[in-house]
Amino acid sequence: MSRAFVKESDDIPELPDRPVSEHPNFVTEKGLAQIAAAIATHRAALTEAQAIEDRAAIAAASRELRYWNARRASAELQPPPADCETVHFGCRVTLHRDPPPPKGKATVAYTIVGEDEADPKKGTLSWVSPLARALMGKQVGDVVPMGEAEAEILKIEAGK
């Protein structure tokens, strides 16, 4: 039988949910705003997909909305750090790598943020990443493992 004679189902395919982290969903003010923006973006995408009856796009937008709504519901807003004598959530940490990587900078800076807002290329690091965990509680002058090298903490300040 030709596919031309098979009736397509009107059901919208259900995509599996995106995995949600097992860790507490700590966020900064900026991270909370990013979650709200993601919800607005995917809500608009869902409305548009429904208008043109694009089943695949409806499923994709619905999946993203489920994820971001769950992240908003579980978000735990963390206040900006009161001090940064030691490294903790929200602090910006400047590190000097020794030896420097072949194709990178010897000195880098990261702000420790929530999982969904982390982007190391933009200078943000998830608080549950191995490097952030190694940094937590450390002070200026301390050395931590960073990949195959080590990094010395040069400066700790309130996140940007």
Question: What's the average pLDDT?
Answer: 90
- Domains (count): 2
Radius of gyration (CA) equals 21 Å
User: Helical amount among residues, as a percent range?
Assistant: 25-40%
CATH superfamily of the largest domain: Transcription elongation factor, GreA/GreB, C-terminal domain
Distance between the termini: 63 Å
Oligomer: single chain
Question: CATH topology of the largest domain, which one?
Answer: Chitinase A, domain 3
Tally of alpha and pi helices: 3
* Unreliable stretches: none
Give a quick summary of the entry.
By secondary structure, the chain is α/β, with parallel strands linked by helices. It has helices spanning 29-51, 55-74, 130-135, and strands at residues 25-27, 75-77, 91-98, 107-113, 124-126, 143-146, 149-158.
Topology:
Elements: E1 25-27, H1 29-51, H2 55-74, E2 75-77, E3 91-98, E4 107-113, E5 124-126, H3 130-135, E6 143-146, E7 149-158
Parallel strand pairs: 1-2, 4-5
Antiparallel strand pairs: 3-4, 3-7, 6-7
